[in-house]
Amino acid sequence: LKDQFDNLDKHTQWGIDFLEKYAKFVKERIEIEQNYAKQLRNLVKKYCPKRSPKDEEPRFTSCIAFFNILNELNDYAGQREVVAEEMGHRVYGELMRYSHDLKTERKMHLQEGRKAQQYLDMCWKQMDNSKKKFERECREAEKAQQSYERLDNDTNATKADVEKAKQQLNLRTHMADENKNEYAAQLQNFNGEQHKHYYIVIPQIYKQLQEMDERRTIKLSECYKGFADSERKVIPIISKCLEGMILAAKSVDEHRDSQLVIDCFKSGFEPPGDFPFEDYSQNIYRTISDGTISTPKQEGMRIDSKTTVGKAKGKLWLFGKKPKGPALEDFSHLPPEQRRKKLQQRIDELNRELQKETDQKDALIKMKDVYEKNPQMGDPGSLQPKLTETMGNMDRLRMEIHKNEAWLSEVEGKVAARSDRRHSSDINHLVTQGRESPEGSYTDDANQEVRGPPQQHAHPNEFDDEFEDDDPLPAIGHCKAIYPFDGHNEGTLAMKEGEILYIIEEDKGDGWTRARRHNGEEGYVPTSYIDVTLEKNSKGA
C-alpha cells in the first residue's frame, strides 16, 4: 500500500465517521431509556395512592398487591435510569473522548506522510533540474565540438578563430562534466531518499495508521461489550422486581378480601322478621257506623329491624346509605358493629398513649431522684412542671378510656339484648332508653331520641274510644309504600310495598307519619318507608 496514501486517508476518515455514528446511536438509546424511565415513574405517580388517613388506607389484598407492583415498577424504572447512566458514562462518554484523540492522532500521522512525500518530491525536482542542466550542457558541448571541427577543417579560418572555438569547446566540455557529476550526485541522493521513503518512512507511517485503526476497532468492540454489560448488570435486580410483582400477585387472597368486606359493612342490625298474615276479611263483620280503628296483632309483638329508621337519613341501615354527617365522639352515628370496632380501636390507641405517658412519668421520677442525690447534675425542681403535665395527661387519658369503655359496654349490652330478643318471642316492649329506636336504629343527633310510634292511651279500648268519639281527621296528602311494613307494634299500621295510603298527620320529628287506608283503618308508619306527597294547601289548613 506504499502508493495508496490517499485511499488510506479516506479509510481512516471513514473509521472515525463510523465511530461517531455509533456514538450517536448510543446517545439516542440513552435518551430512549431516560424517557422510558421517566414515563414509568409518571405512570407510577399517577396510580399511586395519595397519602390518606390511617382509616382510609387500602386493606384489600388486591389493592395492596397492586401498590406493591407499583413500587416494584418504580424500582424497575430506576434500573432503566441506571442503564442509561452506565451507557452514558461507559460507552457514549468514552466514545466521544476517544474520537477526539483519534482525530488528533490521525491528523499528526497524515501530516508526517505529507511531509515525507513533499521532501521526496523536492529531491526529485532537484535531480530533474540537474538532469536537464546536464542535458543542456551536453548539447552546448556538442555544438562547440561541431563548431571547432568546422573551423579546424576550414582553410580560410584564421588561427585565432580556431583557437577561440577550441577554448569554447573546452569550456563547454568542462561544464558538461560538472553538470554530469552534479546530476549523478542528485540522482544518487534521490534514489536513496526514494528508497528510504518507500521502505522506511512511509511503512512506518502506515504502520502507525494501521495501529490507530486497529485500536479504533478494538475500542468499538469494547463499547459493544459495554453496551451489553450495561443491560446485563441490572438483569438480576430487574429479575427481583419481576419476582416481587409475581409474589404480589400470589399474595392476593379472595377469601380475606371477602372477610374484610364483611367486617367493614357489618352493621349488627337484626334481619327483618317474617311478614304476618293480614286478614282483610275482618272488615266484612264491621258495621258502616263503626269508626273504630282496628289495632290487630297486639299479642306476640316483636321488634323488627325494618319497622322504623326514624328520620336518620344517611345512616347505614338495611336500605340506607353511608353516613354523610359529621362523626360523633361516641360513634353513635355508626351501626352497632362498626361502632363497637371504632370504640375498641380508640381504647387501644388511648391505652398505648397512656403507656407512653406512664413510661415518661417513671423516667422523670428516676431523673428527679438522681438530681436530688446529685445536685450538681441538675435541679430537681426543673422537672416538676413536666411531671405535673405528664400526670395531668395520664388522668385525662384514664378519663377518656373510662368514657369509651362505658360506651363500649353500652354497645355490647345492646347487641347482647338484641340477640336475646331474636331468640325470644315473648318480649314485645319498646326500647325507650338511650338513642336506640324500637327497631335498633340510630339517629344523626346524639341528643335526640328516635321514639316509637306515639302512644295515645295505655289501653287499646281507650285508644279505640278516642277515635270513635272524634270525627275522622281530613287527609292532607297521600303516600306510597316503598318497603313493606308488618306493623307488629301497638298503634302502627301494616302496609305492603306499593300500597297507597292517605296522610292524615305529618311527621312531628320522631320518624313516624300517621296514615289511613281506604277502608278507614288508621295507624303510624315509618316515614322513611314511604314516599309522601302533600296537598298544596295542607300546611295552611
From TrEMBL:
<dbReference type="GO" id="GO:0008289">
    <property type="term" value="F:lipid binding"/>
</dbReference>
<feature type="domain" description="REM-1">
    <location>
        <begin position="333"/>
        <end position="410"/>
    </location>
</feature>
<keyword id="KW-0446">Lipid-binding</keyword>
<dbReference type="GO" id="GO:0031410">
    <property type="term" value="C:cytoplasmic vesicle"/>
</dbReference>
<dbReference type="GO" id="GO:0005938">
    <property type="term" value="C:cell cortex"/>
</dbReference>
<feature type="coiled-coil region">
    <location>
        <begin position="124"/>
        <end position="168"/>
    </location>
</feature>
<dbReference type="InterPro" id="IPR057871">
    <property type="entry name" value="HR1_CIP4_FNBP1L"/>
</dbReference>
<dbReference type="GO" id="GO:0006914">
    <property type="term" value="P:autophagy"/>
</dbReference>
<feature type="compositionally biased region" description="Basic and acidic residues">
    <location>
        <begin position="416"/>
        <end position="426"/>
    </location>
</feature>
<keyword id="KW-0254">Endocytosis</keyword>
<keyword id="KW-0472">Membrane</keyword>
<dbReference type="GO" id="GO:0005886">
    <property type="term" value="C:plasma membrane"/>
</dbReference>
<dbReference type="Pfam" id="PF00018">
    <property type="entry name" value="SH3_1"/>
</dbReference>
<dbReference type="Pfam" id="PF25610">
    <property type="entry name" value="HR1_TOCA"/>
</dbReference>
<dbReference type="GO" id="GO:0005856">
    <property type="term" value="C:cytoskeleton"/>
</dbReference>
<feature type="region of interest" description="Disordered">
    <location>
        <begin position="416"/>
        <end position="475"/>
    </location>
</feature>
<feature type="compositionally biased region" description="Acidic residues">
    <location>
        <begin position="463"/>
        <end position="472"/>
    </location>
</feature>
<dbReference type="InterPro" id="IPR001452">
    <property type="entry name" value="SH3_domain"/>
</dbReference>
<dbReference type="InterPro" id="IPR011072">
    <property type="entry name" value="HR1_rho-bd"/>
</dbReference>
<keyword id="KW-0728">SH3 domain</keyword>
<dbReference type="InterPro" id="IPR035494">
    <property type="entry name" value="FNBP1L_F-BAR"/>
</dbReference>
<feature type="domain" description="F-BAR">
    <location>
        <begin position="1"/>
        <end position="257"/>
    </location>
</feature>
<dbReference type="InterPro" id="IPR027267">
    <property type="entry name" value="AH/BAR_dom_sf"/>
</dbReference>
<feature type="coiled-coil region">
    <location>
        <begin position="340"/>
        <end position="374"/>
    </location>
</feature>
<feature type="domain" description="SH3">
    <location>
        <begin position="474"/>
        <end position="535"/>
    </location>
</feature>
<keyword id="KW-1003">Cell membrane</keyword>
<protein>
    <recommendedName>
        <fullName>Formin-binding protein 1-like</fullName>
    </recommendedName>
</protein>
<keyword id="KW-0968">Cytoplasmic vesicle</keyword>
<dbReference type="InterPro" id="IPR031160">
    <property type="entry name" value="F_BAR_dom"/>
</dbReference>
<dbReference type="InterPro" id="IPR001060">
    <property type="entry name" value="FCH_dom"/>
</dbReference>
<dbReference type="GO" id="GO:0007165">
    <property type="term" value="P:signal transduction"/>
</dbReference>
<keyword id="KW-0175">Coiled coil</keyword>
<keyword id="KW-0963">Cytoplasm</keyword>
<comment type="similarity">
    <text>Belongs to the FNBP1 family.</text>
</comment>
<keyword id="KW-0072">Autophagy</keyword>
<keyword id="KW-0206">Cytoskeleton</keyword>
<dbReference type="InterPro" id="IPR057870">
    <property type="entry name" value="HR1_TOCA"/>
</dbReference>
<dbReference type="Pfam" id="PF00611">
    <property type="entry name" value="FCH"/>
</dbReference>
<dbReference type="InterPro" id="IPR035493">
    <property type="entry name" value="FNBP1L_SH3"/>
</dbReference>
<dbReference type="InterPro" id="IPR036028">
    <property type="entry name" value="SH3-like_dom_sf"/>
</dbReference>
<dbReference type="GO" id="GO:0006897">
    <property type="term" value="P:endocytosis"/>
</dbReference>
